[in-house]
Amino acid sequence: MKTAILGFGTVGVGVYEMLGKARGLEPGPVLVRPGKEDAPFKVSSMEAIVSDPSVEAVAEVMGGIEPAFRYACQAMEAGKHFVTSNKALVAAKGVELNRLAREKGVAFLFSAACGGGVPFLHNLTLARESDSILSLGGILNGTTNYMLDAMQRLGLDYAEALADAQRLGYAEADPTADVSGLDALRKIMLACAVAYDVLPAEGLLNEGIESVTAADVRHFRSRGYTCRLLASGGRTESGVYSYVEPVLLRDGAAECSVLQNYNMARYEGRNSGPIVLMGQGAGRYPTASAVLRDLSGILRGERAMFSESCARGRVDNSGSVHCYYVRLPADLAGEIAAESTEYEGEVARLVTKPMSVSAMHETARRLREQGAALFFAAIRD
Ligand code: HSE
Questions:
Q1: How far is ligand 1, taken at its centre, from the CA of residue 329, in Å?
Q2: Could you give the CA distance from residue 306 to residue 240 in angstroms, rounded to a whole number?
Q3: The pLDDT value given to residue 169
Q4: Alpha carbon of 5 to ligand 1 centroid (Å)
């Protein structure tokens, strides 16, 4: 199956190389920006791809919502299967693309959009057919995992850790989505849509690691905690919950062993019990391997990851309750109901009384509006 590639960055180059060696697949034209066509296989017009009858599938690895959405529609309208690693595209337009793919009888697959090389969505797609998924989530962003691990084990500060993650090709072109938790949030949205037929909209909450400091990390370590950015999702009575936030885990918890750019995705089936998948969640070849997995899946007849009825739905994060570690200016410590508070000069570090995810995120938003520099993380003992 000849496959055109949209984008020739970190992942695109990997997909091109791997297509040249994969059974039943071959590389087609590669869409690049005008002026960048420095080899015969590179084209700068989508028209050249959709009008080429020998191209049966299109793999989009360029990122962003536009023009990726327009290109996806053009490819499907032309009867070509569409595979993507683009979580922003699927989180924003997945419902529409699912509908169009079904109308045109083509595949719409996006394993690579969540978990890099980890076959998380692929397994969820199979599991939801025979089991009921009680909850799902895990470490879904390689950049922030790499950074938190490097800050803890190598003693790097935040800026050094981010620069390394960018140099290694883990971070998005604009790393704001990684460090703010938005990238992981988009991934948990896709997982919820696969598992529950609900693509979460409105009410989503994401707290990233932008405000973590080397001093915070030293503080966690002195108390036997490791910090990881975790995504969580599951069903509520009226819809789904879905949020991303830093979590402090007791040494010995499975997530503490997830190092560098690795991801650890998990789901719990009513019958299967907990299932954990671990592997590289970012980088050229791990992500390209997931794109190739989808393309091979098309050869075996796979066509969809979202069910026919998948629709956008409400998110309610008020039912999930944790105690939180909060570091904030000492004069604001009284604003949060705490179990315990430690003062260190102008800084206070407190452990809150149990509070809902939505209440904690709202409190942080309100205090930041007053100019407070704070970091918070849920505590899992
Ligand atoms: N920037 C993403 C990450 C790439 O770090 O996980 C893979 O989705």
A1: 32
A2: 16
A3: 86
A4: 19
Tens of pLDDT, residue by residue over 310-333, are: 999 989 999 999 999 999 999 999
Is residue 247 within 8 A of residue 228, CB to CB? The reply is yes
Q: Exactly one of 21, 104, 187, 353 is catalytic; which is it?
A: 187
**Binding site membership of 170 for ligand 1 (Cβ less than 6 Å):** yes
Best mutation site among 178, 190, 263, 285 for ligand 1 pocket (most ligand atoms within 8 Å of CB): 178
**120 closest CA partner among 102, 138, 143, 93:** 138
How many CA atoms does the CB half-sphere of 328 hold within 13 Å?
26
Per residue in 115-144, pLDDT tens?
A: 999 999 999 999 999 999 999 999 999 999
Q: What pLDDT shows up at residue 219?
A: 96
For residue 242, list its beta bridge partners: 233
Q: For residue 106, what is the enclosing H or E element?
A: none
The rounded distance, in Å, linking the Cα atoms of 195 and 161 is: 34
Please spell the DSSP secondary structure of 252-268, one letter per residue: TSGGGG--TTEEEEEEE
The secondary structure of residue 315, as a DSSP letter, is B
Confidence of residue 381 (pLDDT cuts 50, 70, 90): confident
The CA distance from 150 to 139, in Å, is 15
In the prediction, which pLDDT does 179 show?
A: 98
CA quadruple 36, 39, 45, 46: dihedral sign: negative
Is residue 302 very low, low, confident or very high in pLDDT (cuts 50, 70, 90)? very high
How many angstroms separate the CA atoms of 196 and 316, rounded? 14
Q: How far is the CA of 312 from the centre of ligand 1 (A)?
A: 24
Q: Is 282 in the pocket of ligand 1 (CB under 6 A)?
A: yes
Active site annotation includes 80: no
